[in-house]
Each structure stands twice: as structure tokens, then as C-alpha cells.
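Note to self: the last two entries modelled the partners one at a time, which told us nothing about the interface. This time every component goes in together.
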Amino acid sequence: MENRNFIRTIIEEDLRTGKHAFPITRFPPEPNGFLHLGHARAILMNYHLAIEYGGYFNLRFDDTNPVKEDLIFVEGMKEDIAWLGCDWKNVLFASDYFEEMYQRAMLLVTKGLAYVCDLTPDEIKDYRGDLTSPGKDSPYRNRSIDENTALFAAMRNGEFKDGEKVLRAKIDMASPNMNLRDPIIYRIQRAYHHNTKNQWCIYPMYDFAHPLEDAIEGITHSLCSLEFEDHRPIYDWFVKHCEMPKVPRQIEFGKLIIANQITGKRHIRKLVEDGVVEGWDDPRLITLSGLRRRGIPPKAIENFIKALGLPKSQGETEIEMFYEYVRDYLSVEARRIHGVIDPIKVVITNYPENHVESLEAPFHRDNEALGTRTVNFGKVLYIEREDFIETKPNKKWKRLSLGEEVRLMHAYFIKAMQVIYDDNGEVLEVHCTYDDKTKSGSGFNDRKPNGTIHFVEASTAQEVEIRLFENLLLEENDRNAPIEERLNPNSKVVRKGYIEGNVKPKSSEAFQFTRLGYFALDQDSKEDNLVFNRVVELKSSYKIKK
RNA sequence: UGGGCUAUGGCCAAGUGGUUAAGGCAUCGGACUUUGACUCCGACAUCGGUGGUUCGAAUCCACCUAGCCCAGCCA
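The predicted structure of the combined assembly is written out below.
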């Protein structure tokens, strides 16, 4: 099931040569938003690669920018990651290392490899040059080590205003790699930090902080996405010149992008504000919290991610592939019950009035461990509207129609005798007869029914709310149109339906409603008002032939 | 236009000089079926292009083309 990948090859090589005894990885999110399916690749791959090769995995919050970060995001992320089944060895924060980072930066200063720069942001931008022309040295680039030492200490002590000065690495203003044009290491920013409170008024920048965090933790393989490829030289530069005892290796891979899904923070925020979606955990979103609420099993996410592998190229994966892994998992694990979403009434004319009998039925034909339940049968039933048509259209029709006999799953054969229509010409009732010799499990084999359909006994059925979801965005004609113009008006449809009476659903358990799809209880459910989300539909090879 | 990276069937993805070019998703046939599900069989590519090296190349070289990333005191 699991693809080979180039990172595996690297790790195996490092183990073989004795460079490392075991791998140590980490997932380093900035706590400034919500995790989505795309992040699951980084989380699961970091975790499983470490565990599989006998190492361990850390969760580290990269909280070096207090104005964007918040504790509520760290709690949410921990919940999502734990839900995916990734047990971190340590929960760490970049901010735990602020003192050491400061000391390492000071080391750079004393080695003449970093300097305090007084240029304004605009000037810095100016001096940086652009993609095709080299930058110019800052006039402050050649301050003495003593002066820089004093100035950097003064920055820490709060002697300057926000933004007044920065500490920069002295590398090469003419480098064709923009990241090497004397990158900023520290900025002055008086902001409350969720972890260090008001202890610091200077904060390290990503390019400086990240390699040190990895090195401090002894991370062996530091996985990140492709856009950091040209940061690798600077990553290595800081590890080396800061004299870090342990040397991590940055390896870049392609992010997981799911086609035609909304994952951008500002986009989702707008959908929430506009009321298109009900929150960050709306089941139509592919945020981890949304998938969880919808009823997607985390193991299905893991299987999907492992099947995708870890490429160095960047593609877009179709959401259908993900859904297939959800079905694949649920097909084995989910209990089956009968549910009817668009009911029509079936009256069994030769069945006694006011009588309901109980029939035993397995929850899963091929998985006995899931046990059995009793299914009620009586004179009045509900079947799915689309399972009946007055005149059998062709030999392929494997459902109910006048004069045809079908099996009601786990019950009896019934034959349709008469249709009652309402004033609008809609089918109101189908009158049928049943044959008591055909009871399920009796071994009756004299006739073959025209297919098998499911049903719910009306008097004992539980009425439930069912939420049917479709993709938030319509299949793209022009993918560049604004999101508001691409929204699917039917992304959420709420229906009243019925499920069989003797099953008490447990929260967050996904059921298969036989022949319809997988459904799981939503958190909005109440004792007397069960609410189901459709997790995924079942596949169907049924084609309407003209 | 400077630098970095990528390019294998509709989608994802193995493959690193000699294989019938893995596998998954999708699709199309067919078998089975108390779910038109599941399961099971079968079909489905010559590797962005062009030259070259080689007995032999998706794998090496050259040139070309296309796409992505980089000019935050964001990560």
C-alpha cells in the first residue's frame, strides 16, 4: 500500500552508513490557523517515517511571530494531530529556545557574521536589489564587532523603538539567491507572546530560528515543502556558523494540494463571515476539524496519504481519490442499517393490521464481529422513491415496478400490484403483496427476485435529519473566477428521513445506510433529533440508459 | 531577464543504463452478489520535445519547451 519515496531512500542510507542511529522528525506548524487535509501529508509522513525506522516525532510550534499567533490554535492543532493518530514525543515551542537563539545570534555578532542595521524597511527593500540585479551593501554593514555587540544587546533591552533597527546576517548582497542577501535575523516588535508574555521585545525570523530549533532538538531529517528549497543554503549557513553541535538536514517535498477545494485562510474566513459555511469545522471543508465532524475516519486519511507517497514534484490530487479511501475503509468497518431519505409508502395488502414482526439481520454481511440487530417488518413500510417506477423500463431495472417481485433486504419478497398517486401525479403509495415463504434466511430458492431493495418499517422508524453534502465548488469551468462565482448552491441539502427503529447510533460512528452511502452523527444531534452527515456516497455502476 | 526546482497514461505515483515501464484512483468490459456496494477476472502509457552517447536510455549529455517558487522587519 505504501509508496516508496526518495526520503525513505535517504533515511535508509543514513541508517546504513551509521550517520544516524534512528530518525528524529518534527511537524512545525505556526499556530496561526487551522490544519487541513494538505497538512496531513506532512504530519503523517513525519510521524510514520520516524516511527517506522525506530525513531520519534516531535510536535513543535513555530511561534516566532506573536502578532499572528494564538494559544487557541495550538490547542486545535494538538487535537487534530492526535486525532490522526500521531503521538508526539514532545510538544515544544520555538519560544522555548528564545534565550539560546539570542546567544547564538550574539555569537554570530562576535564572529563578525551579523550586524545591526538602521535602514528603514523601504530602504532595506531598495538595497536588496531585485531578481536580476544585485543588491547594495547597507551603510551599516561594516560596523565594528564591539558596536554591533552593544547595539544588539540594546535591542534586546528595549532601548529602541519597534522597527528602528534589525539584526542581519552578513552574507552576500550580490547573491543570485535573494535569501542570502543579508537576511534579517531579529526584528524589534513589542507584542504580547502567548508563551513568553512580555519578556521579549525582539523576535527571531524564520530563516534563523528554524534551523536552530531543528538542531537544538536533534532533528535528523527536517522535512519541509518545496518553496523552502532556496532557503536550504541559509539553513545550512546558520547551523554551521552558529556552531550547532547537531546538524539536521532539510529535505523538501511537494505539498499535498487537493484540486478544487478551499483551504486558504482568508477564503475560509470569508465563507464563514458570509455565512456560506458554518465554521472552520463545516463538514464541507477539508479542514481536519471539518473532516472529523463530517465523520471521516482518521485511518482513511492515513491510508490515503500513504498511498499518495512523498513526491518531489508538485501536482493536484482529485478529491475523489480521497473519497475512495474513505469508502475502502468504511466498507470493511461500518455497520450497515437501513435508511430512507426520500420515502414513498408501501402497503402490504396481505399482511395483518397492527402487527410488527422482528427479523434478525447482521450489521455486516462479511464482518460477523459487528453483530446483528433486529429489523422490523409490518404492513406499512417506506422505500426509497427512486427504487420504484410504475413500468419496468428495461431488463436492467433491478428494483420495484408493477408486477415485479423484489426482495426486501433481510425480510420478504414483495410484488407491486397497484400505485396510488396524489393530485400532482406523484406516487403516494405502492400496494404490494408479500409471500411469507420467502422470508430471509429460510433458504427459499424457488424464484429469483428482480433485485433487492431496502426499506424501513413505518410505525417504528426513527425520523432523523440528514445532511447531504456536495463539493463546495462547482466543477471548474474557469478556475480563475472568484470563489463566490464558483459556489455550488447544493453543497448542503437538509432532508428528513427515516432509519430503522432498533439501532441506537453512537456519536461519530459512521454507518452505511444500505445502498445509499455512509452517514455519521453530527455534533448537532440531540437525543430526540438525530442529525446525520453524509460522509460519502456509495459508488454505483448503475447507468440510466436512454 | 538572475537563481532554485519540476516534467512518466484523465488524476496521483514508482522507477537512478538492460524490467513485458510497479501500484492506486478514474474509465471500459465481464463474473459473483439478500447492498446496481464489496470481491474477483480482463482491458487501458514508451516516459514534455529534439538531437546525441551507448550493443542497449524514462534513466547519461546538449539544446529547447512548459509549469512552480524567490525581491515580508510572514512562516
